[in-house]
Amino acid sequence: MNDLYSLCQLIKSHPLFNVQRDAILGLFYSLKIRQQLDPEGLLQALKFHQPELYEAIQKNHALFKKHCEDSLKLKMNGIHLVCYGEELYPASCYLMTDPPLTLSYRGSPAWLSDKALAVVGSREPCFESIQWMEKEFAPFCEKERPCVVSGGARGIDQKSHSVALRKSLPTVVVLPSGLENIYPESLKEWLHAIYENGGCVLSEYAYEQRMHKHLFHHRNRLIAALGKATLLVEARKRSGTLITAHQSLNLGRPVWIVPGHPLDPHFSGSLELVMEGAQIVRDAQDLSMLITAEMNDVKASPAGIVKQESLLHYR
C-alpha cells in the first residue's frame, strides 16, 4: 500500500471512523509531528491503537485497489489530493471539531496565504450591499491584496470572488459538492480566471458528489476555518451566513460586520452578531486597519493549543 489518500478513503467509509474520529485523527496528528505520516506508518499505528479498523482495511484489498485507481485518474486530470496532517493541509482545520480527513482541489493552494479572508453574505443582497462591495471592498482588495475565500453561491459570495478576480487576486471557492459536479454550474465559466490568478476550487467531498441541501451548512464550517477572519456583508436571522459567522467565532476567529438599519430585515442577523461582540466595519479603511492588526497578532489561539495538545496524546 503506497497511497495515503486511498487509505484515507477506506478509513472514512468505515463506521468506526465516525465513532472514533478524535482518536483516529490523533493518530494522524502524532504521525505528522514525528514525520511518519505515510501509509506504512499509519497502518502500524492503526494496528496498535485501532485493531478492528486495521483488520477491516486488511480484508478490503479489492476496494483499496479501486480507490488507488480512482486517485490516479484524479491526479492525471489535474486534481490535487490532500490528507489530514500533510504539509498542504490547512493548519486552521486542526482547530475544528470535525475537520475533513481529505480534501481535493484544482488550482493552487491559495488558502496558505497569510491574508486569507472569508467573505459571506446573502444570496439575495440588497442594492446597498452590492454598492458597498464596489465602493469599499474593491479598494480594500486593491490595497491589501488578500486571498478571498467564499462559497461561490450567487449574491455576496460571487460578488466577492468577482472583485478578487478583477483585482487579479487569488480566490478560493469552497464547494458544497465534488469537483466533478461544480455547483452552481455558472462557476464553470470562472474557472480559467480562478486558476490564472492563483486560486482554486476546493472540496472535501467525493469527486462525483452532487450538491445536496444539507451539504451547504456542512461546507460553511470549512469557509469559516480557511479565513483568518470572516467578513459578513449581509445576513438575515436563521441564515446559513449567520451559521458560518458563529462557526468562525467558535474557532476563535474575528468576525467583521457591515452594519445595517435595525428595521431592515436583511441585516437582522448581522446586528445580532454585533450585540454578541462582532466588530463593525464601515469602509475600506476599517477593513485595512482590522486585517493589519489581525496579521500582526502572532499569539497562538488557546483553542489551538488545547486541540493540538489533546492530539499529541496519541504519540
TrEMBL record:
Signal peptide: none
Taxonomic superkingdom: Bacteria
Occurrences of domain Smf/DprA SLOG (ranges): 81-289
A Pfam family assignment: DNA_processg_A
InterPro entries noted in UniProt: DprA, DrpA_SLOG
PANTHER family referenced in this protein's UniProt entry, alphabetically: PROTEIN SMF
Similarity section: Belongs to the DprA/Smf family.
Protein name: DNA-protecting protein DprA
Native organism: Bdellovibrio reynosensis
Lineage, broadest ranks: Bacteria, Pseudomonadati, Bdellovibrionota, Bdellovibrionia, Bdellovibrionales
